[in-house]
Amino acid sequence: MSVHPDLSAFLELAEFGRLTGKSQPLHALPLAQGRGDFERTSQILDPNPPGDITVRTVQLPTRDGSVLEGRLYRLAASADQVLPTILYFHGGGYVVGSLDSHDSVCRRLALSGEFAVLAPAYRLAPEFPFPTAVHDALDSVSALKAQAGQLHLDPQRLVVAGDSAGATLAAVLAITAANHPADIALKPVAQLLFYPVTDMSTERTSHRTYAEGYLLESETLEWFYQHYANAAARQDWRASPLLAPLAAAQAPAYISLAQYDPLFDEGMAYAEALASGETVVALGVERGLSHDFLRMGGIVASVDDIYRRALQWAVTTAG
Fold first, then answer.
1. Rounded mean pLDDT of 202-221?
2. Three-state secondary structure along 263-286?
3. Phi, psi (5° rounding) for residue 165?
4. Catalytic residue positions, numbered
5. H or E segment to which residue 287 belongs
6. What are phi and psi of 254, to 5 degrees?
């Protein structure tokens, strides 16, 4: 399938901006400007996210004495219900992205009222390189467990989730629960992985095929990785989950990939690796779409159906 017509128009505008010098890819920008530009894309990709959602700021302590900000999203009508939780980690290559850039994603995940969504503001590189984000993710699980009662959350029905690098963090939590259960406070019952980074250590065909022109560029990926992880760290399964020994079955995984994405091949490889290790895997490929499609609710009509399918699976799996 060719690029989705709704997305195609946006990509053409992006390419025009690049050719005329009005915009540049993230890897060509100073860090602060790149972060700002990424934040501003949210207002373009999904300017009118669902409004009937209550958002509560929470504090999530970490092992080194810092406190992460988090946001708890739930449908307004479910404010007093004890709900299962989607622990959601935003994308952005561990370098850009924030609670604000993925606010629309969390609102859409909470809209059905079936789950509360807790989004931690894990710390970013290069200020906080690997493995800080991993530690922050693990500490967020501990904080969720400790605060579940006061937040009206069911800690026994935890779904770990994320997109891009955030999906990698969710995958690491699921691996930890399966292979190193003493290292995580709660065992997830499911994982939602949208276009995850699964192997920083090597280049695959999709990195070359979709290197440029589909929002996420392969050079930008390398720019992210250089900020986050040195060569040795890229071989660590906590940065590259595909390199983990996947002997123990993990929580069932819903893996959603974009057809036009440099990360496509490693996403497919990860789904195959999980399935070979007897993890139940539901794999979907969003034809015609590119990386970051979860944030495109305002420009691609079919994104609503992506959320619907993922949440339907999560409801069935989480019980």
1. 96
2. CHHHHHHHHHHHHHCCCCEEEEEE
3. -60, -30
4. 164
5. strand 281-290
6. -105, 115
Distance of CA 196 to the CA centre of its chain: 7
Task: Give every CB contact of residue 175 below 8 A, 6+ residues apart in sequence.
Answer: 237, 241, 244, 246, 250
Q: Which amino acid is at 186?
A: L
Instruction: Write the pLDDT tens digit of every residue in 49-108.
Output: 998 999 999 999 999 999 999 999 999 998 889 999 999 999 999 999 999 999 999 999
- Calculate what percentage of the chain has a pLDDT beyond 90: 87
Strands (E), 44-103: 53-61, 67-75, 83-89
Distance of CA 140 to the CA centre of its chain: 15
Task: Please check the confidence at residue 173 and state whether its pLDDT lies above 60.
Answer: yes
Taken in order of first residue, the domains within the chain and their CATH numbers are: 5-318 (3.40.50.1820)
Structure tokens at 92: 């952005």
Helix axis angle, 303-318 to 103-110, nearest 10°: 50
Q: Tell me which of 252 and 22 has the higher pLDDT.
A: 252
Dihedral of the CA atoms 245, 246, 248, 250 (nearest 10)?
Answer: 140
Beta bridge partner(s), residue 125: none
Two tokens, residue 91: 């994308």
Backbone angles phi, psi at 175, to 5 degrees: -65, -45
